[in-house]
Each structure stands twice: as structure tokens, then as C-alpha cells.
Amino acid sequence: MLILVTLVAVVVTVVLGWYTVGPGGSNKARVGRLAERENPDDALVLADVRLNAEFGGCEVYELLWEAADYGSDSYAVLPGGELVSSYRESAEKATTVLRACAEGQPAQRWAEIVVNFGGGPIDGVGRAGDLAGERYHPPTLRTVIGAKRLTFDAWQTMGPAYYVTVDVPDDGTITIGWRLRR
Predict the structure, then answer these.
(1) CA neighbours within 13 Å on the CB side: how many for 43?
(2) pLDDT score recorded for residue 25
(3) How far apart are the first and last CA of the chain?
(4) pLDDT value for 120
(5) Residues 6+ apart with CB under 8 A from 128
(6) Distance CA 113, CA 54 (A)
(7) Which of 119, 147, 155, 182 could hold 169 in an S-S bridge, CB 3.0 to 4.6 Å?
């Protein structure tokens, strides 16, 4: 009887574990496996997978590569278990993550999603000290006819600053505009 109870407990634990993290193990492990499959250069070695944020039912992971000049990638695990990679960023990927994770989140979070998954020349959301002597535009989210509009300052590594405008329609793909700050 004790063996039967133990066996049932093990089966329930495995089934519930599979159900909560999806097929193939923990989300961290799934992200690592996908990153290695998408790896654009076989010489790159995955150094670390870190949970960067949890919000809106999503988990966002940052992947660090051993090649210091390569930088990092972001991966989102959406509420249904779908993985979205920042490898080959696009407006479509940013739209998917925004729609699944951003509702009810502050404008800063929306801006981080656009920077990490939307592509373009930007590498990070601007902060109050980044633009010496210039007016700073923090992430702002407002509703306009048929869409939400996100605006913020962003920067490019070793490069210029940008003013970013993102239109998020009620349906369809977002549009991202970058204007060089002078």
C-alpha cells in the first residue's frame, strides 16, 4: 500500500510539474535550449540564463553569452507557455509580448518590451541622466483614437540618443518610430 501511495504521489508531482512549466522541464531550461538552437554562431557559448522580471503572467529571461562583445538576448515565457525570443527582433514579436504581458503595467515596462523585442537601433530605455543638457522624456503611455501611444527616450550603445514613438492599435501589429535626438 505504501509503495502504491508513493507511486501515485510521484506521478501526480510529475504531471503537475509538466502542466505548470510546459513540456520539456523548467522555463529556464526551455529558454536555454531554444537559445542554443537559435544561436547564430556555433562559437557562442551560453553563460547564464537569468529571470529578469515577472509581470502580467509572463516571465522575461536575460541570456548572457560568454563572448563579451555579443551582449545578451531576452526571452519571454507567455502565460500559455509560448516562448518569444528577441533573436531577430521585430514589431510582430514586440506586439505578441505586449498583448500577452503588458496590460496594466507601467509605461516603463512597455518601453522595456519594445526595446528588447521590437528591433531597431535602440539598446535601452533612457534615464534622467543620459541626455546631458537635454530635456528628458520618460516613458509615457496614453490613449489616442483606436490605439495606445507610448513615447520615451532611448539610447544606443556607444551611439546617439533617440526619441521613440510606438503606436499600439487595438488589433494588428504595433508601429515603432525612432527620431534621432540632436
Answers:
(1) 4
(2) 59
(3) 76
(4) 83
(5) 136, 138
(6) 12
(7) 147
Cα angle vertex 68, ends 108, 164, to 5°?
25
> Who contacts 70 (Cβ-Cβ below 8 Å, separation ≥6)?
41, 44
Per the CB < 8 A criterion, the answer to whether 81 and 57 are in contact is no
CA distance 1 to 74: 48
What's the pLDDT score for residue 117? 94
d(CA 51, CA 63): 9
CA angle 90, 93, 97 (to 5 degrees): 140
Cell numbers 537559435: residue: 38
Q: Angle at Cα 161 formed by Cα 154 and Cα 125, nearest 5°?
A: 15
Q: How far apart are CA 68 and CA 155, in angstroms?
A: 20
**Any idea which residue has 539598446 for its cell?**
123
Beta bridge partners of 24: none
53: three-class secondary structure by DSSP: strand
Q: What is the mean pLDDT of each run of 10 residues along the chain (182 residues)?
A: 41 34 68 81 70 90 73 88 90 96 95 92 77 79 92 86 93 92 74
How confident is the model at residue 159, as a pLDDT?
80
Calpha distance 101→87 (Å, rounded): 19
pLDDT for 13 equals 35
pTM of the model: 0.79
